[in-house]
Automatic annotation (TrEMBL):
Residues 77-276 form the Fumarylacetoacetase-like C-terminal domain. Coiled coil: none annotated. InterPro entries: FAH, Fumarylacetoacetase-like_C, Fumarylacetoacetase_C_sf. Belongs to the FAH family. Keywords: Metal-binding. This is 2-keto-4-pentenoate hydratase/2-oxohepta-3-ene-1,7-dioic acid hydratase (Catechol pathway). One of its GO terms (biological process) is small molecule metabolic process.
């Protein structure tokens, strides 16, 4: 099932090129969308049939006529995977000689929750003169509290998947700083529930900047697959419903600039396009 948040924090089910407002079915509160999403995830089995059958013509809209928002409206934390594709390590070493280790030694790092943004919000470049790169990734949201969960059991704790952009400023600062600016974690266009993704570790992943394809990879090449990433995160701390994990990017990473349009596509999940703007970028001291 494709679940989306749209317009003024309404909750919807996407079918084809339409979306149906199902807020009433799940007692959704648009004033508290994160808490409402957690409630839906925790009670999804009870609501699933009603959501699948939802067919209210008065509350059904063409997707082209609505504004899609981040399918996870806020989050407690974002765990991200560094150097999780071998070919991405090779390209980083070729360009910058700065990736001597992979996720196997580095484990995960945290991004600021405030970097989260939606599939129609622009990426805002914060610093003039600094190279800022796109990184296409598969992301997922935690559905229930987890601690010390083995990879073999992780599937039971993941609620849904979405396309995710990990926007990154290049430099010598820590990853958390370089990747945590506002709008640096766009997600969307909706969330596909985990029961509809047969194997998240075998999905094609593509990214275009304007009309140029930059990244063309597959999650089958992950060093730590989705479930291993989940295991690593829960070895460090407790995960809670609504926490997000970004699984890392394949090769093809490159710079973006003011005026670009970045399109990401994940097989069986969806795609979205966001513009890039440098309207409020500042000069570094």
């Amino acid at each position: 099932m494709k679940l989306a948040i749209f317009n003024n924090q309404l909750f919807g089910v996407v079918k084809g090129d339409t979306i149906t407002d199902v807020s009433d079915i799940v007692n959704w509160n648009s004033e508290s969308p994160f808490e409402s999403l957690v409630y839906v995830m925790e009670n999804f089995d009870a609501y699933k049939k009603d959501l699948e059958l939802a067919d209210n013509k008065e509350k059904t809209y063409n997707l082209a006529d609505v504004t899609l928002q981040a399918p996870v409206p806020s989050t407690g934390k974002i765990w991200a995977a560094p150097v999780n594709y071998q070919k991405h390590q090779e390209e980083m070493n070729k360009q910058f000689n700065n990736a001597p280790r992979t996720i196997e030694e580095l484990k995960l790092f945290l991004k600021s929750p405030s970097s989260l943004s939606g599939p129609e919000e622009p990426i805002r470049l914060p610093l003039k003169g600094r190279r800022t790169d796109h990184e296409a990734e598969l992301g997922f949201v935690v559905g229930k509290k987890a601690r010390n969960v083995k990879a073999s059991e992780a599937k039971d704790y993941i609620f849904g998947y979405f396309a995710l952009l990990d926007i990154s400023i290049r430099g010598n600062e820590e990853r958390t700083w370089r990747k945590s600016f506002d709008t640096f974690t766009p997600i969307g266009p909706w969330m596909v529930t985990a029961d509809e993704i047969e194997d998240p570790n075998n999905l094609d992943l593509k990214l275009w900047v304007n009309d140029e394809i930059r990244q063309d990879g597959s999650t089958k090449h992950l060093i730590y697959d989705c479930y291993k990433c989940f295991e690593a995160a829960t070895q460090n701390m407790t995960l809670y419903p609504g926490d997000i994990i970004a699984t890392g990017t394949p090769e093809g990473v490159g710079p973006i600039q003011d005026g670009d349009n970045v399109r990401i596509q994940v097989e069986n999940v969806g795609e979205f396009t966001v513009p890039v703007t440098a309207g409020d970028a500042i000069e570094e001291e």
